Structure formats: structure tokens, C-alpha cells
Fold this protein.
Amino acid sequence: MTFCRALLFLLALPCLLASFLCSQTTRKQADLLVSGGTVVTMDGARVIYDDGAVAVEGDTIVAVGPRHAVEAQYQARQTIDARTKLVLPGFINGH
């Protein structure tokens, strides 16, 4: 019984490894990832993500959401660790 399990594991290992590598390489590239802070959004529902992330490409925010979801979708050239920080949108017409 133990030999069969070991054999099954060895046969499944290449598939598991290929699946892991494919999931790692399919993430989109962003310029900046602000990750782990409390993210305050400006969407209609005014959602606040306690453990959120923001992905930025050039001058465009391309993703906002829970940290685990954004980090699964994007990798970045620069990452800012925002744990214990508040991530707020810029002021518009703040006069």
C-alpha cells in the first residue's frame, strides 16, 4: 500500500509542478503593487479592504481588491509593503 502511494505521488509530481509553474507565470505585469494595507476605495459602495492591494501600470490603477486576489493576478517591478498603513485615493478638486 505504501509503495503504491509513493508511486502515485511520483507520477503526479510533474503535473503538480507544471500546474504551479503555469499559475506563477500567468500573472500580469504591473509597475507598482501597494500591498497589505487598509485600502479605501472610491467606488459606489465605498468598499474598504482591511488587507488590500492596489496594482498600478504606468499612471493607471489596474486592480484594487483583497491582497490575496490582486497578488494572485499581478506581479510588479516595485512593491510597497503597506501593512499597518492606510492606502487612500488622491484628492480630486481638493480646494
Summary: The longest helix spans residues 2-25. The beta strands are 28-35, 38-40, 48-49, 52-57, 60-66, 74-81, 86-87. DSSP finds two helices and seven strands in the chain.
